[in-house]
Amino acid sequence: MDSSARSGATGSSNPRAWIVAGVAVAGVIVLAEVARRRRRWLRGKSSPPPYSGAFCDRLELAPPPQPPPPAARQQLPDLTFAVSDNFEIEGYVAGFGNPDWKRTHKAASHTAAAVKALLKQGATCVGRTVMDELGFGVTGENLHCGTPINPASPSVVPGGSCSGSAVAVSAQLVEFALGTDTTGDLRIPASFCGVLCFRPSHGVVSTLGTLPNSHSLDTIGWLARDPHILSRVGDALLPAAACGLKGKRQLVFADDCFELLKIPNQKTVDVIENAVRTLPYGFQPPKHINIGQYISSNVPSLKEFCEPSTKLQEGKSALKALCTVMLLLQRI
Q: Do you know which InterPro entries this protein is assigned to (predicted)?
């Protein structure tokens, strides 16, 4: 056998040659798959799913006509809004984010009180939005209805539980949206989707006609892109606005809480005070308090949860008390 034949036989039986060839073929396959997935992603980006997956029910509840003078003008004319899937609407079944719940429950005989109040002020409800199943979740993902696409960052979750409401507002499908906030269910998706959110104190807005997650914590709130619209919705829903009550405009700094930050307390205060000076409404000079002392003086029922300040770093005692109370309320 000549030398060329011997070298060919040696090369064909060399395992290193086969490894190099295998790696090369694998690399070609991987590059082809990456290119295919990128083309598919670009096609999907050019034609996003309708409504960004925000809605689970499309409907239209038109407001009553503007009453003639001397009746007051409606506060929310020509504005559209959506509500989470735990708001009851007459003639429809609230799914609560779960198809089994929707299948085993009857259509509502009444519309939620908050929805009625908004309709009365001229707003139009255009649908119910996706939420975490039964309101348990902070990611906004729903196995049954699908996860709404976060318009602010499509590669990340929208946050929950009221994910659909935040996505509908962020995607400019509605001017504002309602949801219930138990332990961040509105605030979390608002921050994820880049919209504004307002959660009033517990019990201020009637929860009549909403499916509860926790009676002692559920609070109706709303989301909007425009702070002016956020304020107008508050004027329609908050009883203090209807009564014409006006409190003084003043920022209160809980100094003992700010001391827990890694940055100097005064630097934070200066930044906030400078921002306040740019607001169009006049604010009184800021007030500084110790929240631990405030709780002990004004909320006697929480005294037993506060430990002496000598045992804990100043400020942490009050925060620990509030956290303990919240955990106990969740168990109710």
A: Amidase_dom, AS_sf
Tokens in use for 4? 């060329």
Q: What is the DSSP letter of 183?
A: S
Residue 273: give the domain boundaries: 250-330
DSSP for 51-118, please give it: GGG-EEEEEEEPPPPPPPTTSPPPSSTT-EEEEETTB--BTS---TT-HHHHHTSPPBSS--HHHHHH
User: What pTM did the predictor assign?
Assistant: 0.64
Same domain, 183 and 119: yes
Contact in structure between 240 and 209 (CB atoms under 8 Å)? no
Q: pLDDT of 23-54, one tens digit each?
A: 666 666 766 666 666 555 555 544 444 558 99
Q: Closest Cα to residue 165, out of 227, 83, 220, 48?
A: 83
Give the integer Cα–Cα distance in Å for 203 and 85: 20
Nearest to 124 by CA among 169, 190, 77, 166: 77
